[in-house]
Design goal:
Elements (H helix, E strand, L loop, with lengths): L1 H26 L3 H26 L4 H20 L5 H33 L4 H21 L5 H18 L1 H11 L12 H30 L5 H29 L1 H21 L6 H16 L2 H13 L1 H28 L2 H4 L1 H12 L5
Helix pairs in contact: 1-3, 1-4, 1-5, 1-6, 2-4, 2-13, 3-4, 3-6, 3-7, 4-12, 4-13, 5-9, 8-9, 8-11, 8-12, 8-13, 8-15, 9-10, 9-11, 10-11, 10-15, 12-13
């Protein structure tokens, strides 16, 4: 059941992202105004992270948050299909962001508790379910490209709402059994470690956000077709999904600290090698491989860090590291764009290389 929630989050997020261009055209807004709407969603997410961290520590807080968050996200998709003005788009974006913020903390905290009770690593599999849900939704989006976005949002959002309502009894039962025990406020116990974990999550999410926003742009700039350029993010996403499917087995084999160190090393070396081949005859092929290897290397990092945060200081620590991490996710790709404007894109893309290399040095925190 919990894996289903991870998959649903991936499906909802990918559906939202894949159809935003159609919403932009329908509303008739500029890229700048669309950025404002996306910022509104991000602010809603960050605000609700702290709220959900506190609620998750209460008795039966986690199951209630899971149900409320999924219903909110389903409703946001349905409403997004009806948007016809910029003001309405901003309002719906805030609702969507709030739903994501409500979901992230209980989902990861419950996953960590489930892992503790099973006595074996499962967080990699949970996050793999998210990746698989996102890839599946992207495929559906491509297959339904000829349909109105209103129809797609209404069908997907309505399906999510119905599924959430039907599974409420099972969700309450499962989540209550797996609900994390209350943890101390991370601001009063081991705050330095929690902040370090947050900075590490930010480094990982900056690299993930850079892949999302800049991988295809980078490969396109190497003189290949738009179709080949689009394969860059597919390579990254496939590497991420495959890596997460194997992450639990590697966690058992290597332990979390060594796996984080190995993953960060693979990520830094993979993308770094791809960038180093920029001015060679195999630049495009090397770049595609580099982005794919980056996905494999990054795949275990964020799940391992969420596990470490929840295990040490409870749900509120997950909220803290998530807030710091998502600030990095928002600011990182924009910073890469600014550096690229001042210098060049290949040089700017060394930012995630440096950050993932830095994770190797601070892996003792896990």
């Amino acid at each position: 059941m919990l894996a289903g929630y991870f998959a649903a989050q991936g499906e909802i997020t990918a559906t939202w992202a894949s159809r935003l261009p159609a919403v932009k055209e329908t509303v008739g807004i500029s890229p700048g105004r669309l950025s404002i709407a996306l910022l509104a969603a991000s602010l809603g997410l960050i605000v609700m992270l702290s709220v959900s961290g506190r609620i998750a520590e209460r008795p039966r807080g986690t199951p209630r948050l899971l149900v409320a968050a999924i219903l909110t996200l389903g409703a946001a998709l349905v409403l997004l299909g009806q948007v016809r003005s910029f003001g309405t788009l901003v309002a719906v974006a805030v609702i969507f962001g709030c739903g994501q913020g409500l979901l992230l903390v209980p989902l990861n905290a419950a996953g960590v508790e489930c892992q503790r009770r099973l006595g074996k690593p499962v967080m990699g599999s949970f996050h793999a379910a998210y990746s698989i849900g996102a890839v599946a939704a992207s495929g559906v989006a491509a297959a339904t490209a000829g349909f109105s976005h209103t129809i797609v949002f209404t069908v997907v959002g309505g399906t999510v709402i119905i599924a959430a309502l039907v599974t409420i009894p099972a969700t309450l039962s499962l989540a209550e059994a797996d609900a994390p025990t209350s943890g101390p406020d991370p601001t009063t116990r081991r705050p330095g470690r929690v902040l370090l974990l947050g900075a590490m999550v930010a480094a990982g999410l900056i690299a993930e956000g850079t892949a999302l926003d800049w991988s295809s742009v980078h490969v396109r700039g190497l003189g290949v077709s738009a179709t080949t350029a689009a394969a860059a993010y597919f390579a990254y996403g496939s590497g991420m999904a495959a890596g997460r499917l194997m992450a639990d087995a590697f966690t058992q084999c290597l332990g979390p600290r060594r796996l984080l160190r190995a993953g960060a090393t693979v990520a830094a070396v993979g993308l770094g090698a791809g960038l180093a081949a920029t001015n060679t005859p195999v630049a495009a092929s090397a770049a595609l491989i580099g982005w794919g290897v980056l996905g494999v290397g990054l795949s275990p990092i964020v799940p391992l860090l969420y596990t470490a945060a929840a295990a040490s200081s409870g749900p509120r620590a997950v909220a803290t590291v998530s807030t710091i991490g998502n600030v990095g996710l928002l600011a990182g790709p924009a910073a890469v764009g600014g550096i690229a404007t001042a210098t060049s894109l290949p040089l700017a893309l060394t930012v995630p290389v440096v950050l993932t290399a830095a994770l190797v040095l601070v892996s003792q925190a896990v």
